[in-house]
Amino acid sequence: xxxxxxxxxxxxxxxxxxxxxxxxxxxxxxxxxxxxxxxxxxxxxxxxxxxxxxxxxxxxxxxxxxxxxxxxxxxxxxxxxxxxxxx
Length: 87
Fold this sequence. Notes:
Blueprint: E1 4-9, H1 10-16, H2 20-30, E2 36-40, E3 48-53, H3 56-68, E4 77-81
Antiparallel strand pairs: 1-3, 1-4, 2-3
């Protein structure tokens, strides 16, 4: 079974200033959920964060919600298959 994530590019959010407040609240709320994974640490241009989803439908819904409700730029959000993490 393939796992899916919503990848959020914080650099695009920061540069556009669209949905910044919504994203910061979302990120803080889910920080301890185990569903957030920083794949590229934040630097001057921002980082990449993956939000784990239960399946493709959930990932598609969350990505659309982030854009339509949260106001994030469409270019800051994408659904992708999760990379397998060895551990």
